[in-house]
UniProtKB/TrEMBL annotation:
Segments crossing the lipid bilayer: 206-223
Localization annotation: Endoplasmic reticulum membrane
Name the UniProt record assigns to this protein: Sec20 C-terminal domain-containing protein
Superkingdom of origin: Eukaryota
Membrane protein topology class: Single-pass type IV membrane protein
Organism: Pocillopora damicornis (Cauliflower coral)
Gene Ontology molecular function, alphabetical: SNAP receptor activity
PANTHER family referenced in this protein's UniProt entry, alphabetically: BNIP1-RELATED (PTHR12825), VESICLE TRANSPORT PROTEIN SEC20 (PTHR12825:SF0)
UniProt xrefs under Pfam families: Sec20
Sections of the chain in a coiled coil: 46-103
Primary location recorded for the protein, binned into one broad class: endoplasmic reticulum
A GO cellular component annotation in the UniProt record: SNARE complex
C-alpha cells in the first residue's frame, strides 16, 4: 500500500477503491490544467472532479469508521494511518484542483484577449470589405438604373412609333369608310335606277300589250266590215 502502510485484508479492497478514485481525480486535474476553454467546458470538468472529490471524501470517512470498529489495536492503527494518508492526499488533490483552475483560467483569459484583438482587426478588415462591397453595390445599382432608363426610353420611342402607325391606320380606316360611303351611294343610285328601269320595262310591256290588242281589234273590225265571210 501507499507509503508501505499495510492494512488488514478485510479493508484492502476498500483502500484500492480509494486509490482508484484518486487516480481518476488526478486525470481530471490534468484535464482542467490543460483546458483552453470555453468556460462551459471548464465548468463541466469541475463538476465531474467535484463529484469525484465527494466520493473520495466519503470513502475516507468510511475507512475511518472501519478503523474504530476493529478489535485489534494494530489493525485499528494501521487503518487509521492509511486513512490519514488518503485524507492528506484528498487535501493535496483539492489544492491541485485550485491551481489547475487558475492555470486554465489564465489560458482562457489569454485566448479571449487574443480573440478580442483579432476580432477588432477582423472588424477593421470587414469594415473595409463592407465599404468596397457597398461601393460596388452602388455602382451596380447605378448601372442597373441607367439600363432601366435606356430600356424605358426605347419603350417610349416604340410607343411613339406605334402611335404613329395607329394614327396612319386610323386615317386609312377613315378613308376606307369614306370610300365605302361613296360606294354605298353609287350602289344605292344604281339600285334606284334598276328599280326605275324595271318599273318602266313593265309599263312598256303593258303598253305594247294594249297596243297589240288595240291593233288586232282594229284589224278585226276592218275585216268584219269589208269581208262578207265575217258575217257582213
Amino acid at each position: 500500500m501507499a507509503d508501505g502502510i499495510e492494512v488488514p485484508v478485510q479493508v484492502k479492497i476498500h483502500v484500492q477503491e480509494i486509490v482508484k478514485v484518486e487516480f481518476e481525480i488526478q486525470n481530471n486535474v490534468q484535464s482542467i490544467r490543460q483546458c483552453q476553454g470555453p468556460l462551459s467546458l471548464l465548468n463541466d470538468l469541475n463538476l465531474k472532479v467535484k463529484q469525484k472529490i465527494n466520493s473520495l471524501r466519503q470513502k475516507v470517512e468510511v475507512l475511518e469508521q472501519v478503523a474504530f470498529e476493529q478489535d485489534k489495536e494494530s489493525d485499528r492503527l494501521a487503518i487509521l494511518a492509511a486513512m490519514q494518508h488518503h485524507r492528506k492526499e484528498l487535501q493535496s488533490l483539492q489544492a491541485s484542483i485550485r491551481k489547475a483552475n487558475v492555470a486554465s483560467m489564465a489560458i482562457i483569459d489569454k485566448s479571449e484577449k487574443e480573440e478580442l484583438f483579432g476580432g477588432q482587426a477582423s472588424s477593421v478588415r470587414n469594415r473595409t470589405f463592407n465599404k468596397e462591397n457597398l461601393a460596388k453595390t452602388a455602382s451596380n445599382i447605378t448601372q442597373d438604373l441607367m439600363s432601366i432608363a435606356r430600356m424605358m426610353d426605347g419603350q417610349v420611342k416604340q410607343s411613339e412609333a406605334d402611335m404613329q402607325i395607329l394614327a396612319q391606320s386610323s386615317s386609312q380606316v377613315k378613308d376606307t369608310q369614306e370610300e365605302y360611303k361613296g360606294l354605298s351611294g353609287v350602289i344605292q343610285t344604281s339600285k334606284n335606277l334598276l328599280n326605275k328601269y324595271n318599273r318602266r320595262e313593265v309599263t312598256d310591256r303593258l303598253l305594247i300589250f294594249f297596243g297589240l290588242v288595240l291593233f288586232f281589234s282594229t284589224v278585226l273590225y276592218i275585216l268584219k266590215k269589208r269581208l262578207p265571210i265575217f258575217g257582213g
